[in-house]
Write a structure and sequence with these properties.
This protein is mainly α. The chain folds into three domains: 93 residues, Fumarase/aspartase (N-terminal domain) (Fumarase C, Chain B, domain 1, Orthogonal Bundle), CATH 1.10.275; 219 residues, Fumarase/aspartase (Central domain) (Fumarase C, Chain A, domain 2, Up-down Bundle); 98 residues, Fumarase/aspartase (C-terminal domain) (Ribonucleotide Reductase Protein R1, domain 1, Orthogonal Bundle). It is 61% helix and 5% strand. The strands form three sheets. A two-stranded antiparallel ribbon has the order 1-2. It binds arginine. Arginine binds next to helix 6.
């Protein structure tokens, strides 16, 4: 066996590992992306070994310099990855031995790959959480800008996909803002829970060396150390939480996508997407398709799939570490890459979206969208709501027969059904009147939407950095 492919666990074995087993058990083709975290962890661990007298100053210096060299080698693409060296941890350790010999063999004192990989994964999830957090903020800023631009633009509000009441596009965009705000807070909340160091848990029960776990935790900027070694090496909750938070985020992005896809269809024509973010058809020359949004909607399935994946990987594992855990990486990396791309894609689509205000206003005027306003009008004249509901229902029925909108009926026609109706009713029957007439906090009125925008701006300008 070549010097640089010796497995650290070779000692006990009398036979060479079967090629297929090497191939099947290796994770290097996907876990090499953890190299920076692995090197950071090894630096912290070596510094701690020096602090407690296991590594001399000279040895520490040698290790730190060699770790830098390994980092550079990986960055320059010169590192040769081998299945025989299983994973990123063994590759880096092996490389260190190549560079500095026996000194490097001391680095694994008081450490196991079990706490090492848990540490790497926590460092990775921590960075990814920060990246998602920042991407969500970027998207929220775009939503605020659009909401300001369209805060007076009337669109129909739907329930059951039927025109329900007039609202504004700004109101919808602020709904999306607050959905993302909850997503952001979920990531923040999980970050706080994950930020404790498992390093020093060793294989499963700690170590007989008097290691200083608090010191390595501090060096790696963890808030504290985990409480129980057995839990530390088998815990993957933080990955489940990340993918679960991502799933909810994706369900939101998917709903935004669906809305825009429907709205930019020829039948609706509520919004137009810029040519540069749409794609065409290979057979139908007229087609302009919102594929980016469809892919966000489709990739939601990818992320949900990874949630089922990680939950199932963890479901029946005995304590403590099992190799099943290695499968957490493809699940996590795939999820992180997907949400990163989808957040960027959604931002790009919103930046290149235009509301067709004439069309949306005309649509909002259809479908008797101000019928509730007429009922509320009658209630204010002393009619109990249920009776008002019936009167308006009859009036709408009458208008349908006449093929007219509510505001096209004459006062006389209104009064034939309810004599309490007066000329001032027309103020409430037009869509702008209906929107401005909303009084409740969080409602669709122009004023309330402006308040929501103001609050959103404050949230964004004072957001908690992680
Ligand atoms: N590649 C392994 C993983 O990702 C590292 C830990 C291996 N530990 C062990 N005892 N086999 O989980």
């Amino acid at each position: 066996m070549a010097k640089n492919t010796k497995k650290p666990w070779q000692g006990r074995f009398s036979k060479k590992t079967h090629n297929f087993v090497e191939f099947f058990t290796s994770s290097i083709h996907f876990d090499k992306r953890l190299y920076l975290y692995d090197i950071e962890g090894s630096k912290a661990h070596s510094m701690m070994l020096n602090k407690i007298g296991i590594l001399s100053d000279k040895e520490l210096k040698k290790i730190l310099t060699a770790l830098k060299k390994v980092e550079k080698k990986i960055e320059s693409g010169k590192m040769v990855w081998k299945n025989s060296l299983e994973d990123i941890h063994m590759h880096i350790e092996n490389e260190l031995i190549e560079l500095i010999g026996d000194t490097a063999k001391k680095i694994h004192t008081g450490r196991s790959r079990n706490d090492q990989v848990a540490t790497d994964m926590k460092l990775y999830v921590r960075d990814e959480t920060t990246a998602v957090y920042e991407n969500i903020i970027t998207l929220q800023k775009t939503l605020i800008q659009l909401a300001e631009k369209y805060h007076k633009s009337i669109v129909p509000g739907f329930t059951h996909m039927q025109i329900a009441q007039p609202i504004t596009f700004g109101f919808i965009l602020m709904a999306w803002f607050f959905m993302l705000e909850r997503d952001k807070s979920r990531f923040l909340d999980s970050y706080i829970r994950l930020n404790s160091s498992p390093l020093g848990a060793a294989a499963l029960s700690g170590t007989s060396y008097k290691i200083d776990r608090k010191y390595t935790a501090k060096l790696l900027q963890f808030d504290n150390v985990t409480d129980n070694a057995l839990d530390s090496v088998s815990d993957r909750d933080f990955i489940i939480e990340f993918i679960s938070n991502s799933s909810l985020l994706m369900s939101h992005l998917s709903r935004f996508s669906e809305e825009i896809i429907v709205w930019c269809s020829t039948m609706y024509n509520f919004v137009s997407l810029d040519d540069k973010i749409c794609t065409g058809s290979s057979i139908m020359p007229q087609k302009k398709n919102p594929d980016v949004l469809e892919l966000i909607r489709g990739k939601t399935g990818t992320v949900y799939g990874q949630l089922v994946n990680i939950l199932t990987i963890m479901k029946a594992q005995s304590f403590a570490y099992n190799r099943d855990n290695q499968e957490d990486k493809p699940a996590l990396f795939n999820c992180a890459d997907t949400i990163d791309m989808c957040l960027q894609a959604m931002n790009l689509c919103l930046e290149n979206l235009k509301l067709n205000e004439d069309v949306t206003k005309a649509a909002a005027e259809k479908g008797f969208s101000t019928a509730t306003d007429y009922a509320d009008y009658l209630v204010k004249k002393g009619v109990p709501f249920r009776d008002a509901h019936e009167i308006v229902g009859k009036t709408v029925g009458y208008a349908i027969n006449k093929k007219l909108n509510l505001d096209q009926l004459t006062l006389k026609e209104f009064q034939n059904i309810s004599p309490l109706t007066d000329t001032d009713v027309f103020k409430f029957l037009n869509v702008e009147g209906s929107v401005s007439n909303k009084m409740s906090i969080g409602g669709a009125s122009f004023n309330e939407v402006m308040k929501q925008i103001k609050k959103a701006k404050k949230i964004i300008s004072t957001y908690e950095k992680i």
